[in-house]
Design a protein that fits this description.
Layout lengths: L2 H30 L5 H25 L7 H33 L2 H27 L6
């Protein structure tokens, strides 16, 4: 298998794992908390869960990045998070948009999955160029 194909397959698998973590965390939150902000809280918690899972997988297996120290790893994670803000807008736009239009949990999750897929595709390029770069920009 070509290295680029292997990378794409691995990235897709890791994106799927992070998506499952995200949607799973959302579902857990809505089962535990049914208050006025349940949907918003679930999306925030799911986003955080997916972010951490994806960072660990990307850092180690996609970009094979070795931080010099805990402080350096924290700095890289912060940059990774900042790059994710743009893609999070896309993800949240799809999820909340589907929720507003279709008014069902299943369609909200479908919107979230579509938004995450689009966001992860964009995020790979941002991370490669700005986060896990091997030479200065």
């Amino acid at each position: 298998m070509f290295a680029s194909t292997r990378l794409a397959v691995n990235y897709a698998i890791f994106a799927l794992i992070a998506t499952v973590a995200n949607i799973g965390a959302q579902d857990l939150v809505t089962r535990i908390y049914g208050g006025a902000f349940a949907i918003f809280a679930s999306v925030v918690v799911g986003t955080g869960a997916g972010l951490v899972v994806k960072y660990i997988l990307d850092k180690r297996y996609i970009f094979r990045f070795q931080a010099r120290s805990v402080a350096h790893d924290t700095q890289i994670f912060a940059l990774y998070t900042v790059m994710g803000l743009v893609t999070t807008v896309v993800f949240w736009g799809f999820e909340f948009g589907f929720h507003h239009i279709f008014e069902t949990k299943e369609m909200r999750y479908l919107g979230g999955i579509i938004g995450l897929a689009i966001g992860y595709l964009s995020k790979y390029h941002l991370d490669k160029r700005y986060v896990f770069r091997t030479e200065p920009v």
